[in-house]
Amino acid sequence: MAQDKPESPLWILGASQGIGEALALHVARAGATVAISARSAEKLDAVAAKAPAGRIHPFPCDATDIDSLRHAVTDIEAKLGGIATAVLNAGTHKETPVDDFQSADVERIFDLNVMGTVKALEVLMPRMVARGSGRLALVASVAGYRGLPRAAAYCGSKAAVIAMAESLKAELDGRGVTVQVVCPGFVRTPLTDRNDFKMPYLMEPEDAARAIWDGLRADRFEIAFPRPFVLQLKALRALPPRAYFPLIRKATGIE
Predict the structure, then answer these.
(1) Could you tell me if residue 3 is inside a domain?
(2) Beta strand pairing status for 56-58 and 10-13?
(3) Does 154 participate in catalysis according to the annotation?
(4) What is the pTM (predicted TM-score) of this model?
(5) What PANTHER family does the record point to (predicted)?
(6) Alpha carbon distance 59, 69 (integer Å)
(7) Domain boundaries, position 78
(8) Do residues 15 and 44 make contact, with C-beta atoms less than 8 angstroms apart?
(9) In sequence order, what are the beta bridge partners of 222?
(10) What's 75's domain CATH number?
């Protein structure tokens, strides 16, 4: 008799380090079956080795290549069952100040942060809609709430993900597919380690993973943390331009 497949997996795209790695380990230790993807098979194997045996399953792929994504999703569902929850976390960051503003940098950031998510959605949504079930968690950032100096590309990419999640939720409500958007603040990762400024409310990746997992299970649309930082940034979002720009220039040291 064929061996039963494990329960439908949670798939994390962008799971070789940082928030994605921490979430994979947190969920696996809670007893779930987790499929993880990123470009580096070696890094994915290292993440899986930290988890209880048989809980994390690596499926290397390139988030910017739709054929690679389609192959990974097909492989996951053949081996582990239909993806119940997908956390689309692949992303990157680089400062794009006006004195060194290059289209190549912006294109690279949008290609992964936005189009990587778009391509994963193209693969996943028809499957979930056909099944009448599934959960799509799009990882954005509180940086998507409003434009910040030296981060035009990153803020723009994350704002795009937030708006896209809102649009998709309006369409997928009632079709059995849950859409959520994840908006972390500063989390200690290899990307934020590059920052040369003090990061307010800096969180450890394990704390971010707990916040995301709690939010996924609570079914709320926006999973945003840490709460004090989120409230401050949402207050800034409500300011009119004549108040916002002088305030943000002062706060970020822009002369």
Answers:
(1) no
(2) unpaired
(3) yes
(4) 0.94
(5) DEHYDROGENASE/REDUCTASE SDR FAMILY MEMBER 7B, DEHYDROGENASE_REDUCTASE SDR FAMILY MEMBER 7B
(6) 10
(7) 10-252
(8) yes
(9) 181
(10) 3.40.50.720
